[in-house]
Amino acid sequence: EPLAESEAPQARNSALGEDALWHILYSLGRDNAHPDKHKCYWGLVLAVRDRMLEKWASVQRQYYENDDKRLYYLSLEFLPGKFLRENLLSLGLESEAHTFLRKYSFSLDQIMDVECEPGLGNGGLGRLASCYMDSMATLGLPAFGYGIRYSYGLFRQEIRNGRQVEMPDNWLHEGNHWLIPRPHGLYPIRFYGTVHEWQDDDGTLRHDWRGGDIVMAMANDMYVPGYRNGHVNCIRLWEARPHKEFVLSSFNAGDYIGSVQEKIKDENISMVLYPSDDAPEGKTLRLKQQYFFVAATMRDLVRRFKKLNKPWDQLPEKNVVQLNETHPSIAIPELMRILLDEELICWEDSWFICQKLFAYTNHTILPEALETWPVELMERLLPRHMQIIYEINRRFLEDVRLHFRDEPDLPSRVSLISDGPEKVVRMSHLAIVGSFSINGVSALHTQILRDRVFHDFIRIFPDRFNNKTNGITPRRWLRQCNVSLSWLLSEHLGCDWVTDLDQLERIRELADDEEFRHDWEQCRLTNKKRLADHIEKRNGITVNPHSIFDVQAKRFHEYKRQLLNVLHIISLYNHLRKNPEVMMQPRTFIFGGKAAPSYWMAKDIIYLINCVARRINSDPHTRNVLKVIFLANYNISLSQLLVPATDVSEQISTAGYEASGTGNMKFALNGALTIGTRDGANIEIGERVGQDNIYLFGLCEQEVLDMRNRGYDPWELYKNDGELREVLDMINSDEFTPGNPTAFSGIFNSLLSGGDRFMVLADYRAYAETHQRIAHEFGDRELWIRKSILNTAGMGFFSSDRAVREYMDDIWGVKPDV
Ligand code: 26M
């Protein structure tokens, strides 16, 4: 076997299978004589978990003994995907698991069907957190992930009559042994209440936050093993529990039901993940979630620090906190509150500690996605924090006035609090002022932060801003999801590429080797057939595995422009109908993705795609060359099936809007060619794989700005481009919704009368022409496979190991624990 498992240090001596059988009987209380696939699954989980826990315990001990600096990664979202296969792989237990399962005639694939996927995130941001947790464990870093144990993850998407329907994701209903609850040592978390002022012996004014409601925070731990290095880290997910089993006063007053209802209210806090990945709703419950998990996390941090018996100024020497977006940024005033009010440290020293502890990553520049909270709400829910934010702001603005005397407008632009019809706290400003590092997630994105979004702050804090281009873990996104290609790679490279992805460069020269190209193509075909089977099963549609598999899988958003894709598909369809004799490269267009439940435009776009698909797939004149598939309920598991089977990866956001993208990296790593705009990390992918091996098209970021400034009129394009006009008119008729001509008038209007905010029509022609080139070049098998190989070869840079090393060296100052 090319991927030797013997390298993995093993703690246990007994066979994995024996332990699994033992657990079926003694932990699960089930007869283990003839285990079915459910019992095999659960038994295996427990046996694997034992091995992880042993390593975890010794690693934790080591952290204390070595007095390591610790990294806290705070994120409201994690999207780890299914665990069993990943953990078997990391721990080097795959073949032992196979041996066990073979005895009962199960495959690991079958067993994996039993596992449910934790959907504790919306998309890019949550998945990035999980890729980074994997790399941190693989690099052996003393790192701790912190988040919320939502009872309900992101909704399950069903498609009914072409429309998205949201169903609850009750992912814990069968229990989940990957998650270990820690019911002892809960933390009380306060909301509301009042601030009392008092004077201490030296006459210093002190503050005390009292009263209000208390909710308990209970830890649930998830473990993250490094790849065959004996290292195991943990992601601690907080769950809200009632303060007291019953509210005694109402219980005694005979209000039994009322007291139970109180208890239920407290548990609401960790009930459900907010399903939007932009335009925050400003709901009290969301702010409660943020504070709840941040307060519990800071308690953990402070508790561990106190065990070291070190002076407080050493807190940032022994810890660093990375904030994943502004969602956890209330951690800054929370630490201030602890230092000022509980530890009685003066403002200057407290603020000094804070500013050396926190680092903030920005993931979005959409103005509507920048988080703000009404001052009025903050004052009620977190009165002491609001006072602290005012004081941070007062001192900050005083400094700004002093240093920028000739810019009287600057203070109000950078203020943490904005005046408007309603005063709000700008969370990004809080995060910037309270952090020593602020980073964007791709070169272009960081440049836009510098030039536009945070331009004022660049001058105030020139040294704080930096770039960390995103990365993805090669363990899940190549080794695990693309077994056939992994074996081929290891046959030629050995197996070090799994933890040293730059090794992939060495297959560059094999692009000239005909036999290697043949093997490459066979791997890809195997993966495409597997996806074709899935589509047959799920959608009841037969697709040709030799056709171009063209995939756009990501959240539905106007800026990601699924619309551009479907407009082009309609024009291909028109072209085929008008020229029935024409030879066309067969194509299968595949979509996957969820829309936020309240994002009507995005849901209409899903409906449009499904209506177009129904029409095209049932047309006997075109169905051999053109298929459109919408795969419901896109998630990590589905992504692992799609990524290795994709020929063409659609990364077509309006330039300047996609902070980075990470799906783009997954597809290219697995040998797909990208059709993309000069946006986010696409630009850097082009630099690495070579401009001949990527299809970049359309307006660049500067051109988008210029065109807007000059005055962009989509009606002009409508008038002048007959093919495009025909497509738009079809959308604005009952062509795809017989009897209902206004089904898509919202879409039509947004593209024309609405001004086409995301420049769909402006990029249409370039997009269509690029697709024509792609179809042509796909037909040249040697050329295409060569390009495919060169994509994989050039993607080493986008390993999350590289990204995490950069964070480690430039921001965190933590070292691998060896
Ligand atoms: C905020 C408030 C209330 C409810 C939800 C939110 C919220 C949740 C997620 C806001 C934004 C969220 O995520 C943004 C996101 O996923 N950004 C993506 O981050 C990726 C990792 O850096 C990038 O690759 C993507 O380009 C970027 O869109």
Characterization of this structure:
- The chain is of the alpha/beta class.
- It folds into 2 domains: 67-81 and 117-470 and 805-812, Rossmann fold; 547-780, Glycogen Phosphorylase B (Rossmann fold, 3-Layer(aba) Sandwich).
- Helices cover 47% and strands 15% of the residues.
- It contains 33 helices and 22 strands.
- The strands form 5 sheets. A 9-stranded mixed β-sheet has the order 5-8-9-2-1-10-11-15-16.
- α11 (331-342) runs antiparallel to α12 (347-357), α22 (562-578) runs parallel beside α23 and α22 packs across α31 (760-779).
- The longest helix has 30 residues, at 37-66.
- The radius of gyration is 27 Å and the shape is globular.
- The chain starts with 15 loop residues before the first helix and ends in a 6-residue tail after the last helix.
- Mean pLDDT is 96; it is low at 1-9.
- It binds N-[(biphenyl-4-yloxy)acetyl]-beta-D-glucopyranosylamine.
Distance between the termini: 28 Å
- The CATH superfamily name of the largest domain is Glycogen Phosphorylase B
- Unreliably modeled segments: 1-9
The CATH architecture term of the largest domain is 3-Layer(aba) Sandwich
Instruction: Provide the list of bound ligands, each named once.
Output: N-[(biphenyl-4-yloxy)acetyl]-beta-D-glucopyranosylamine
